[in-house]
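Project outcomes to date are best conveyed with an example. Our students and postdoctoral researchers have been running inverse folding experiments weekly, and each run begins with a structure described purely in tokens. The record below, which covers 268 residues, was selected by the lab manager from last quarter's runs and is presented without edits.
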């Protein structure tokens, strides 16, 4: 009887061990799958982080390049146009009252000067992507979005929010690339307009009576393009909460429409 009981106990224990092993195997399988999913999600986030960082870096460098070249050249030209003191449109608006104010020009000078400085990554992020005028006055502690910070936090949220993180980063990447593209087109338009305006001034000199209606239209167009480029340079991509700014899509649409309109006008 004792032997029979031992056999039953042994059999029961063996069954328990088999069941235990099965549970362990299932647990191991689930763990492996979980780890694979987490590793795959983490890789997706890292890859998208890199693409987003590249897009933001490209946008920052494009803005810096425009400030250091075209904007500097335009400021020099603008001072010459102002000295002419000629009316530049059909509404008889004087150059001193047209489109760009002294504040605008001073702000562009400031940004051109800042573009020549060595800034930290955080300072560049704030200055070129978050705010326009007086951007450095925004306290950096208010900036919640940082790619580096997102990388640091991703291990805590990777399983639950990985896909959302990727989608958010992808949207920022796409909008940053579109901003860079529009800035490049606007910059080309300004370079052309500066060359045309210089030719007009060199041909007519400082006498107001020498400037025809067509000449004044060329001066006005140059001011208009510079004003549009200035507004787009200062358009924030990211708001102070670290999210895409509300007006980003509208700014992109208006920028694209403006480029088509001016290209048509300049190619007549």
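After processing, the design step wrote out the following sequence:
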């Amino acid at each position: 009887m004792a032997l029979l009981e031992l056999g039953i106990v042994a059999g029961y224990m063996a069954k328990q061990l088999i069941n235990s092993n099965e549970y362990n195997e299932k647990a191991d399988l689930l763990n492996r799958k979980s780890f694979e999913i987490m590793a795959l999600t983490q890789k997706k986030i890292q890859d998208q982080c890199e693409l987003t960082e590249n897009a933001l870096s490209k946008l920052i460098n494009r803005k810096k390049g425009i400030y250091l070249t075209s904007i500097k050249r335009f400021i020099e030209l603008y001072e010459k146009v102002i000295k002419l003191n000629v009316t530049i449109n059909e509404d008889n608006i004087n150059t001193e009252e047209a489109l760009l104010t002294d504040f605008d020009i001073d702000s562009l000078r400031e940004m051109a000067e800042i573009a020549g400085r060595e800034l930290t990554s955080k300072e560049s992020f704030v200055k070129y992507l978050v705010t326009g005028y007086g951007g450095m006055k925004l306290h950096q502690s208010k900036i919640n979005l940082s790619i580096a910070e997102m990388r640091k936090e991703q291990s805590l949220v990777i399983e639950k929010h990985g896909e959302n993180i990727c989608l958010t980063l992808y949207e920022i990447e796409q909008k940053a690339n579109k901003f860079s593209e529009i800035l490049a087109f606007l910059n080309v338009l300004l370079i052309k307009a500066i060359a045309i305006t210089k030719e007009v001034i060199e041909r007519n000199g400082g006498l107001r009576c020498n400037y025809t209606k067509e000449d004044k239209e060329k001066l006005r167009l140059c001011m208009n393009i510079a004003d549009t480029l200035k507004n787009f340079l200062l358009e924030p991509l990211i708001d102070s909460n670290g999210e895409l700014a509300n007006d980003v899509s509208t700014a992109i649409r208006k920028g694209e429409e403006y480029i088509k309109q001016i290209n048509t006008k300049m190619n007549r």
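Residues 1-19, 90-97, 132-154 have pLDDT under 50 and may be disordered. The first helix runs from residue 2 to 84. The training component of this project remains on track.
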